[in-house]
Amino acid sequence: MQPRHKKLLFSAIAVLLLAWLGWIGYHGITLYRSALVLRAAADQNGADLDGPALLQTARIAGRSAEALQYALVPLYPICNLLGGVPGVGPVLGQVEPGMVFAGQAGGAAARVIEAMLPVMESDGQGEDMGSRMTTAAAENKSLLAEARVRINRAAEVRERLNPAVLPNDFRRLLDAVNANFSSMQAGLGLLSELGDLGGATHEQVYLVMAQNKDELRGSGGFISNFGLVRVQNGKVVSFEMVDSKDVTNPQTNYPAPPEPLANYMLVKQWLPKDANWSPDFPTAAQQVSELYAASTGIAVDGVIAFDQQALRDILDPLGAVQVEGVDEPVTSVNVILYMENAWTPRQDGEIATDFSDEHKSFTGKLGKAVLAKVLGLSNPLDLTRLGRELLRQMETGHVSMYLKNANAQQALADANLDSRIDPRQNDFLMVVDSNLGFNKADFSIERVLEYRVDLTDASAPRAELNLTYQSSAPVKSVCSHSTGEGLTYVELQNGCYWNYFRILTAPGTRLTRSDVKAVPAAWLIGGQGYPGGVGAAQAEGATTQWDGLLVVPAGERNQVGLQYDLPPGVVKQDAGGLTYHLRWQKQAGVTGWVGRVVIFAPQDLTLRSEFNWRRGETPGEWIWEGTLTQTLNFDLVFEKD
């Protein structure tokens, strides 16, 4: 090659190299600055930025992250090769997974914003928001589908990330993303199906269940009201709410109810109001849908359940609503009081003839007021705040959702938001309480759980479970198991507690001892006592179920005690130590369990965990204490010192 040609070649390479470095520098600085703005906005809930500006910033950050991912491809082999070098090696080893993750996640965000930004920037009226979002999602379905592919790719590479080796600023940003990643996946999955869910092509019908957590049932609480929402082109065509007792058709041949309802409440038919017996929400929702359709002839496209705590907490970011017939605005502070007052008899002590009608009427009017307020939101920050609260309610089990759209339902499952029973090949524990006392006594019950697991012989792990139920109600001399007619809501809360409990454990557990008191015949409406002990069955998710009846007199306490052998598969042992995984799943509607988990491991092993565990006084004893407000997964690794 002639010198002149070599000079031109080197000059071209230098220009390309400078352009490449400039491209990297430009997008690197842009990404860093955008990330700082987004982080500051998140810390201040976006107070200093209007919605469209915030979304534009996120869009720029996403595009820059995507550009950097591809620009740095030539450096990936070098960084990976140097990954074992002491000092900077671990950081260099994170370049490829970090940039691929950022690029794919950022690319997904950029496409979502590209699809939905015109909606947020529109000058249309707030009540049109649902329609505009549904139309945008339907028109940009391919763009949203591409975003979903990218977020799933980001999920695949996320397992390779090690935030501990990254600089503090990057680690905090990554931790913030990781903390919300599953919900972002679910949100994107639902958004990509919003055209169909919102009725862009044909009307969608959703069944709404108002559940009362003061009267627990499997999926969260007794169904006090059913609501039917019809949606087309993103607009609510109609919304009606009726008392659950009214959704009964005398011409329908209903199936026999679950045995506990028949045995302890003398229920003869399985009516829609009792249909949410299963603690697995997809199962309960399908059963409710079937019985509702049998009663009304109406097939639904999904089921949404909520309880009074969800309503109270959602009114906090949403703000006060004006309910027809109510003098003052209904807020998060007074909403539960209004709902309870709707149950109160007249002051003369007689039950009003329109007692249930008043309750039904208030609930329906409140539901319409809340729905109107939600549909009236147009500010992206207001929508974000509401979305965060809704997500929190789903995580804590006060809102549950089932969708017949398979892709949307899978998105909920991927984000662990579908409220299904999921033992996951681990040790598993879930306590399911059902109030069979014709009252609202769950309000007065405090729940305490202690779970002790012996792993000293990994081939034969054992467990001991103790449940304590304490009533804070005023002490009464007798427990009268009656229908509760004529009582105020407070009196219904302060009664004795008839609890049919189900304890779901890992598949293959074997009971060795149970301690459950007998219930005298005089305490049961059917006149037949309960002998004590527990029954056995296979339950949802192939779990092993131990069940029985427990009565807690007002102001007193009662306990359940079990001992059982765990299947050996819950413990994995090798030369370096052992691993043990426990999934403690919370029943929907339960506010919380005060819990204590105690693990006994071989004394020569130390727990490598940062999940608030501490050493006990006994060698090999490890203790976790806290309150279960949502499902927890304990992944414990014990290693030799």
Task: Walk me through what this model shows.
It is a single chain. With about 650 residues, the chain is of the alpha+beta class. Helix content is about 40%, strand content about 25%. The chain is built from 18 helices and 20 strands. Strands 6, 9, 11, 12, 14, 15, 17 and 20 form an eight-stranded mixed beta sheet that branches. The chain has a seven-stranded mixed beta sheet with strand order 10-13-8-7-16-19-18, with no helix packed on it. Strand 11 and strand 12 form a beta hairpin. Helix 7 packs antiparallel against helix 9 and helix 9 packs antiparallel against helix 17. It is globular. About 5% of the residues have low confidence.
